[in-house]
Amino acid sequence: MILFRIKELIAEKEKRENRKVTQQEISQHTGVNRTSLSKMQNPDMKYSATTSAIDALCRYFDCKVEDILVYVKDPE
């Protein structure tokens, strides 16, 4: 399954910039809806993001696609 690393990226950005980063801020800068951001952070939702949303998140977090998404083998 594909998992989003949004929580980890937020934590890294907060530590790097020594400030709180909110979903509202991310949404305003990326155009990605807050509901979508919440779904991305919940592995049970199995959310499917558009490439434009992933691109916007890469720009915001200044990272690569593989920093946002990770493949984890489903438990058998």
Automatic annotation (TrEMBL):
<protein>
    <submittedName>
        <fullName>Helix-turn-helix transcriptional regulator</fullName>
    </submittedName>
</protein>
<dbReference type="InterPro" id="IPR001387">
    <property type="entry name" value="Cro/C1-type_HTH"/>
</dbReference>
<dbReference type="InterPro" id="IPR010982">
    <property type="entry name" value="Lambda_DNA-bd_dom_sf"/>
</dbReference>
<dbReference type="Pfam" id="PF13443">
    <property type="entry name" value="HTH_26"/>
</dbReference>
<feature type="compositionally biased region" description="Polar residues">
    <location>
        <begin position="23"/>
        <end position="41"/>
    </location>
</feature>
<feature type="domain" description="HTH cro/C1-type">
    <location>
        <begin position="13"/>
        <end position="68"/>
    </location>
</feature>
<feature type="region of interest" description="Disordered">
    <location>
        <begin position="17"/>
        <end position="43"/>
    </location>
</feature>
